[in-house]
């Protein structure tokens, strides 16, 4: 395990109430769905890239919903939101969830019978005229969690997509995608690679390609370094275009990082200039393309590799209209440095996290 894979609970803030779990999940769900629509509408991704992007976003949303169900009535454990310029759940939460579900059969056998728990609910509500206890609510949530959540749909540290024929007009004959959750910055990334293949059949090297991507392209790094690492390990594969989307930070009331956009939103929420549900989402898209080839190695170990062009880095901010105005007013240097003016997305209509 490299130092980039080390995380600690000190990097996180705790969600400690039912309303916070509901509110946080609503915010993440809403922001990611807005992102999918916006990316397509503003042509930040191709049609095929959007399809893959939505699949990875669905895994992320499924996992966060599973966390909400698991933790909402648990009085001993709390879900943690990352503080290191992320705004997403701490990576440990995904790891705990995945490991916990691998033991689900052991837990299911220990759960109270559903009919018995239903009788206890009815007894409390109808006969005793009192609220159902948190203990019983936790038991019900546990039944729902362990009997309905599937481990295979949990967003893991690395998620591999399939190799398919690239759409017409692409810079390679084939394309593949993958997603990873970088432990260092605690954010999800989605990547695409377009490539040519010089072997007889692509099926013969698929598993090798997947293994190389998992070991070489599973963390944030300079994109040309990633491209060279992939190219060097796959002799029959000629990468032509690699694209990486960095999701985040997700700027919201639960984030407490040092990011200037996050600070601006938090200060304005504290001053009651903007509502509690105010948010913004940063997005970075890096791309690198092949500009030719060169030969590396000696006479017996000669290999043709790609000569990569300078990576192109583009930054975007997605936010509701009021937050865009706020950021232009207080952080014009950030707004003026974006690839294009901030992209307007919808306000979150909040009925859960309202001020008291």
Provide a concise account of the structure shown.
This is DUF2971 domain-containing protein. This protein folds into 2 domains: 11-153, no CATH class; 158-344. With 356 residues, the chain is an alpha+beta fold.
Keywords:
globular; 2 domains; nine-stranded mixed beta sheet; 40% helix; disordered C terminus; alpha+beta; 356 residues; 11 strands; two-stranded antiparallel sheet; 11 helices
Summarize the structure in words.
This is DUF2971 domain-containing protein. It comes from Gelidibacter salicanalis. The chain is 40% helix and 22% strand. The chain contains eleven helices and eleven strands. Strands 3, 4, 5, 6, 7, 8, 9, 10 and 11 form a nine-stranded mixed β-sheet that branches. Strands 1-2 form a two-stranded antiparallel ribbon. Helix 1 runs antiparallel to helix 2, helix 2 packs antiparallel against helix 6 and helix 5 runs antiparallel to helix 6.
Order of helices and strands: EHHEHHHHEEEEHHEHEEEHHE
Largest sheet, strands/sense/barrel: 9 strands, mixed
Report the principal-axis shape.
Answer: globular
Amount of beta strand: 15-25%
| Intertermini distance | 45 Å
Number of domains: 2
Count of alpha and pi helical runs: 11
* Class inferred from helices and paired strands: alpha+beta
Which range best describes the helical content: under 10%, 10-25%, 25-40%, 40-55%, 55-70% or over 70%? 25-40%
What's the pLDDT, averaged over the residues?
Answer: 85
Cα Rg: 23 Å
Poorly predicted segments: 1-10, 351-356
Q: What's the count of strands? A: 11
